[in-house]
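Build the 3D complex.
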Amino acid sequence: MGRYVLRRLLWTPLVLLVLVTLTFALIKAAPGNPFAMDRVVSEEIRAQLEARYGLDKPAIVQFGQYLGRVVTDFDFGPSMKFKDRTVNDIIANGIGPTMLLGACAVILAVAIGLTAGTIGAVRQNSVFDHASMSAATFGMSVPNFVTGPVLVLVFALSWKALPVSGFDPSFSLLPALGIAALHVAWRVTERIRVGPAGFSWGREFACLWLGLLLAAVTSVVTLLARSPTLILPAVTLALPFASRIARLMRAGMLEVIGQDYVRTARAKGLSETTVVVRHALKGGILPVVSYLGPAITGVLTGSLVVEKIFAIPGIGREFVEAALSRDYMLVLGIVVLDGLLLVLFNLAVDVVYGFLDPRIRYE
Amino acid sequence: MSGGAAPAVVRRKAADTSRVVLSVKDLKKWFPIRKGLFSKVVAHVKAVDGVTFDIHAGETLGFVGESGCGKTTVGRAILRLLDPVTGGSASFQGQDLLAVGGDELRQLRRKMQIIFQDPYSSLNPRMTVESIVGEALTVHGIVRTTKERRERVQELLKKVGLDPVRHIARYPHEFSGGQRQRIGIARAIALEPDLIVCDEAVSALDVSIQAQIINLLQQLQEEMGMSYLFIAHGLNVVEHISHRVAVMYLGRIVEIAPSDRLYDHPSHPYTQALLSAIPETDPDAPMNPEQLQGEVPNPINPPAGCRFHPRCRFAEARCKAKDQPIPVWRIAPGHEMACILGEKIPGAERIGEQPGF
Amino acid sequence: MSADLDPPSDGPWAQAWKRLRRNAMAIAGLVVVSVMALAATFAGTVAPFDPRISESWETSLPPGARHLDLVNEFVVTAGQAPRERDVPPWLHDGLGDGHDHACELDVVAEEVKQLRVTMDGAKVTKIQGDGARTLAKVELGPEDHLRVKDAGTRIEAKALEPGMALPEGVPAKTGRWVLFAEWVRIAPDAKRTVRVAYGYGTVSAVTVAGAAHAGEMRIRAEHVRDLRVDGARKEHVHVLGTDLNGYDVLSRIIFGARISLLVGLVATLVSLSIGVLYGAVSGYAGGRTDVLMMRAVDVLYAMPYIFLVIVLLTVFDRNLIVLFVALGLVQWLTPARVVRGQILSIKRREFVDAAVTLGTTPWRILVRHLIPNTMGVVVVFTTLTIPAVILEESFLSFIGLTVKFGGEPIDSWGALVDSGRNALGVNGERWWMLVFPGAAMSLTLFSMNFLGDGLRDALDPRQKGRG
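Done.
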């Protein structure tokens, strides 16, 4: 396990290096000069500009310098369009909204997907099952750049229940703290009731997961309840992933429920809830966890669309605008940053998966 | 064929012993076992560990042994399907078989073909009979036009007993096992080879079909004069078709003899055990006492001394001794066997030895 | 020998088709996709309007709105349905007499005695005839008090003179005009013409009825939504409305389908070819080559590829080739992996050894023996990759990276959705510009995914129910 994580960690810089090189090479392969595109500038000014951005040096030197700055100072250089802002400034301003929205969407998707999938699997072929699975199949096929505007049309423009766009988050930690307190109270009472004999780290760990998930969902609900501008973007972003997770969860649980050990658990006379929570849930959640990696990639991609639709000042919108206005330094910076985020998130997901599935031998 | 429903057994035609088609000396093929992060080789499976034999023109050499003894590996190594071999040499019609490459090898391949055990996986499910049988003709530029190819393929189908008109455009899944094997044979003889390796060519078939296929192979040998290396896991199958039979055990030939001689005077305990394993058709025949016991040993870690000793009913203490050469004895002309206790056989003459373990 | 031939069973494809046919959703998907593909292929014929020609005064018409054509010229032969012919704008000359009129309706008929022209919503300014006895009647709607005053007024005009002005007593107001012309005494081969000049852009419907006309009748009307001739109705409807610029939404969707499906198909074929070849070579070569090639795939897999595609489209000219390359770059990775896995198992099968023994070259083995046996997977991947590519292309269009095609931007579905989104209006009153392109796109993706899943189940029943 440790060796696997180590290998993946060594793998990460290689992936990032290839990414930076590829992006840099692409940009250098661009026909024409970035300053010759839309403004007519004199030779003198252009030379000045090129010197400022280091474009007068050979490409390989530029690449080396860029790489050096990124690695040592995490400095992505100046923006080409905004004279007074660096790429770091823009990213620093934009990363907050993007991450907030992304986290909201992922937690929402997991919460909705797990619930719907579990109920669907436990009450297989019920009305709920059919309805939620049809909805999920549909949700997976409708692209978020259709869902988003349609939600705006229905909830913001026609019904006027929610704001059309904007970004105005407001948060309170209290409900999450309440959940934490409840969690502690629950654990303590169990200790008192059962006594120290029944203590096991594994069980505490499992309960902690549950508590964390509940706290996260509560936080998201708090956030959305207090900041209506976030509801539509979060839902838009979460919908396709919630759909996929619901389907995965249902399929995974059905597979586990059909297996011998769950049938044995039932035969032992354990209650349905215990069977579901203790056994089926644990096996059924595995496909969902392995899907989280692609889901995070999808959330990052989706943020490009959602931030555009709802005018959220995140790095997704900055990236699209940078791409359209050919602000190469900014484009490069955001690509590298997103690449880093993706690789790290995927690593985290894989490690979590390894904890959950003891069958995995990372060899 | 023991109890075979073989209609009119074709008599074996005598082989031309003056001409050696294939000569294999001390052939070795070891498969590495890798482990760990850097795929370090930790051990070898010595599938073939020093095999020597000759095949003459027009001769059928039977190769017999339990599964895992390396007989199939020998066949495939000769056909250069398992490059590179670990050691030894092989010459085909005087040409160094293991050294040629490129175009030379492609030319050599025309003369050596193979018929496989599994008639299902040996035919490409996405090709018609015409393209399966005719592929070699196209590849080697023997035919130029599709019309020419069709005619040749039809001739070949007729030769192997298939309907040249009705069957030519069909796909393999439309045929029965025996018919598929006929297609495989047609493919093998398309290039008029001098040697065909029949790799358990009838093992997967019903007994009645086995007889038909063996007859077909004998018929074709008479017409075309090629040699067969006929690999099988039981002695009963090779009895009728083989001029000589070699018995393999764990990567080595333990006994080789003319067919009649081997069946009448099996001298290696393993051969005797194999022979007794043939189901007897005569109800009055005495029960065989020499039933083979135990499993084939793990080839990664074979027993020391004589490899057969754990299952041998004659085994003595000295058979277990490590690193002793295994003597090879000549019992009669063309009848050789390898056994530590060989001197007990009357008339055995020590002619060499195999390295020990 | 042929006696023991098994009854020819179905081949793998036929069996797959049998299984697929039992899957109702997949078949529904197949039907939808086929219809879409046909509509896209024959977009020029199927689409009711040319999506590149705007009728700038017909903006934002709701779904089902009647069509207002620039100029309609009908040639009606007796006993036949009317045939429409476009008349270029420069042909209509106006009356050129300085009156306050902009448009005109000309009816030229042969062998007709009576002609009735009903115009709804017209502000008639002038009537001309060729000597028939003309009755002009104004019927006015109840909501207009001016018209109510004149309700039932029946003006009997004198024989019309060329260039004659509006009959006296008829107000130049909007209403329903019924122009009744009757020719009493004319030469049998003479043509009858009636010309009505009316206010610009105000006529909603015209009905021309020639009492038992025997010959040909030509009617040319400007800016008329609905033209009925002798009861044979000729009308154009904007089934899905028009957009802010006066383009027909349905036509734009159909032409958008063309670009979306084309991009989906070509990019899929390109990327699958690359992927299959790469995976096949990697799997067949094995050993170090295989490890190296698959590591490269792993690295590319970890890339935030959509960002790279955006960079590519930013850096280079946004034409179709660059788009194909960009999308193809992404989609070849998964098929490469899967095909490699397939090849690894196929290459162990004995027919490959047989081919080697025959002296077949490695390349030929790859192309003739290995790759054809991966076709089941490839078909499944094709049907699942096409919607993925369509989605990606639309995504790119949506965020503004529209592709130029021969200089002019073509609107794929993504761009339509984006423009629809921008056109919604403060209360969402122009919803159709967003909803219909979005629905078309979702339906297509939905159908393709169902078809792909169905094909996967049909071609590889063991895989059923995954994901």
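The first strand of chain B starts at residue 16 and ends at 35.
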